[in-house]
Amino acid sequence: MDNAAAVPGNPPQANHHFADAARDAVYQAIFSRRDVRGQFLPDPIPDAVLARLLTAAHFAPSVGYMQPWSFVLIREAAVKARIHAAFAEANAEALQMFEGEKREIYRELKLEGILESPVNLLITCDRDRAGPVVIGRTHIKAMDIYSAVCAVQNLWLAARAEGLGVGWVSIFHQAALKEILGLPERIVPIAYLCLGQVSHFHDKPELEAAGWRPRLPLDELVYFEQWGETAGDGAAALKAALRAAQDTAAAHRRFDLAQS
Ligand SMILES: Cc1cc2nc3c(=O)[nH]c(=O)nc-3n(C[C@H](O)[C@H](O)[C@H](O)COP(=O)(O)O)c2cc1C
Fold it and tell me: Ligand 1 centroid vs 168 CA: distance in angstroms?
């Protein structure tokens, strides 16, 4: 990846920035992370690696420092089979919710790697972890859920750095997940993840490659001072920079290409 600090108008933030290679590695993980469904290898994940991933998740930010997450590891074939059956039931329902060409594309999509990946992981949110009144969560109760999602993303990026794929499977009835894995009432299933080594990472999101949706132009998603306001002080300059940064991200989404 380009040395970001060498780009004019992109000065390093005094003393607090990572060394160039470390900073580039962070962006590399972000740009080359993929949702993995079909490329899992059966090799086990060493405990030391799994421990690093779970620790990355545990160091996520959380409202009021609630740390509302827990982690249910699923490695036994019998449990995975029950989860897969729950997915298949929900997925058949989902197929019927799309029409025409979308339904045909949907039918061909692989949307999980439950059986092939060596480790499945449910990240949960305990809505009562820190008692009834939580600093920062006094007015917007869903902040605990958002916190748990931050843990998911930490793990996802750490896994990419470790060369491991992660796929998020969300096509379930929540009640089915809770029943199969024995979750108490107050525990919300946040992310059912499939983890493992992969044969390769795709260079684009699979839904983008399948023509489902393109990546949206970032410069059209940024407003100034008010929702919908696209002009403002410095708007044109920032939008040009956003387009350039999005192009750079796209060019570096594959680690192996970026290295060559
Ligand atoms: C909350 C959430 C739920 C998702 N659920 C599924 C899913 O059920 N099945 C699937 O194949 N991908 C799922 N994905 C992955 C998205 O399809 C994927 O992130 C998106 O297409 C962009 O691709 P990328 O992650 O490779 O960049 C989910 C992602 C998120 C963030």
Answer: 6
**What number does the ligand 1 atom closest to the CA of 204 have?**
26
Kindly report the protein residue whose alpha carbon is nearest to atom 10 of ligand 1: 111
Domain coverage including residue 59: 34-214
Q: Is the beta carbon of 219 within 6 A of some atom in ligand 1?
A: no
Q: Which of 117, 142, 3 is nearest to 63 (CA)?
A: 142
Confidence of residue 9 (pLDDT cuts 50, 70, 90): low
pTM above 0.70, yes or no: yes
β-bridge partners, 197 = 164
Count how many domains the chain has: 2
pLDDT at position 260 is 35
Given the CA of residue 109, which atom of ligand 1 is nearest to it?
A: 11
Q: Is residue 2 part of a domain?
A: no
Distance CA 25, CA 148 (A): 24
34 lines ligand 1 (CB under 6 A): yes
